Amino acid sequence: MNVYDFDETIYNGDSTRDFVKWCMKKHPKALLSLPRTGFYTLRYYLFHIGTKTEFKEKMYGFLKACDGERDVERFWAEKLGGIKDFYREAHRDDDVIISASPEFLLKPLEKKLNITVIASKVDIHTGEYTGLNCYHAEKVKRFRELYPDSQIDDFYSDSYSDEPLALLARRAFIVDGEKLIDWDFSKHKKHLRT
After folding, report:
1. Tell me: the pLDDT tens digits for 50-84?
2. Where are any strands of DSSP class E within the chain?
C-alpha cells in the first residue's frame, strides 16, 4: 500500500484554495465571507489564537452561499487535469490519499482515480467540522482507524509536517513538483500549530 498527501503532492496546487477561488467566481455572494475570513486568518496566523481546525471552520463559512455537491462535481470537471504525471504513472489500486483538505472535496476522486480518501470531515453546507483537522499526527490516527495493522510501503508528501506518517512507511519521499526526493528525517518540523 502506498499513501500520499494530496495538495502539492499529487495535485499541482492547493485544492482547497483553488475551490475557494472557484466558488467566489461562481457565487459572488460567497465574497461576503471575506472580511470574516480575513479576521480569523489574522487571529490564527498573526496572533496565534485558536486552532487550525477553528480557523478553517470559520474560513469555510463561504460554503453557505454555494451549491454543495454540484459545485464540487463542476470543480473537478475543470480541475482533474491538475493531477501530476508522476502519480498517474505510479498509481496502484490500493493507494490511500490522506489530506487536511475537506473530505467532501476529495471524496469524489475515489471513483475518478480509483483511490481511498481520508480527509477532514467538514459539512459541505455549513463548513462545520466533525472532529479535528486531518493534519500532522491526526493523519496517523485517522489512517490507523481505517487500517489498524497495515504497513505503508511508500509515503509521499510535499511537506515535512507529515513526518508522523513518513515514520510508518518503509520508504518516504518529499515531492517537489514532479521530482521525488528521499525523506530527510533531520528536517522535521518543530512547533507545528494544529
Report:
1. 999 999 999 999 999 999 999 999 999 999 999 99
2. 2-4, 96-102, 116-120, 152-157, 169-176, 179-182
Q: With b meaning 16 or more CB within 10 Å and e meaning fewer, what string describes 148-179?
A: eeeebebbbbbebbbbbbbebbeebbbbeeee
Mean pLDDT calculated for residue range 128-145: 96
User: Would you say 148 and 156 are in contact if contact means Cβ atoms under 8 Å apart?
Assistant: no
- Rounded CA gap, 82 and 14, in Å? 10
- Phi, psi of 140, rounded to the nearest 5 degrees: -65, -45
Place of cell 500520499: 4
Q: What distance in Å separates the CA atoms of residue 77 and residue 85, rounded to the nearest whole number? A: 18
Q: Is the pLDDT of residue 127 over 80?
A: yes
CA distances from 90 to 7, 32, 80 (A): 17, 42, 17
Q: Is the pTM of this model over 0.85?
A: yes
What whole-number distance in Å separates Cα of residue 71 and Cα of residue 151?
A: 36
Q: How far apart are the first and last CA of the chain?
A: 27
pLDDT in tens, 18-41: 999 999 999 999 999 999 999 999
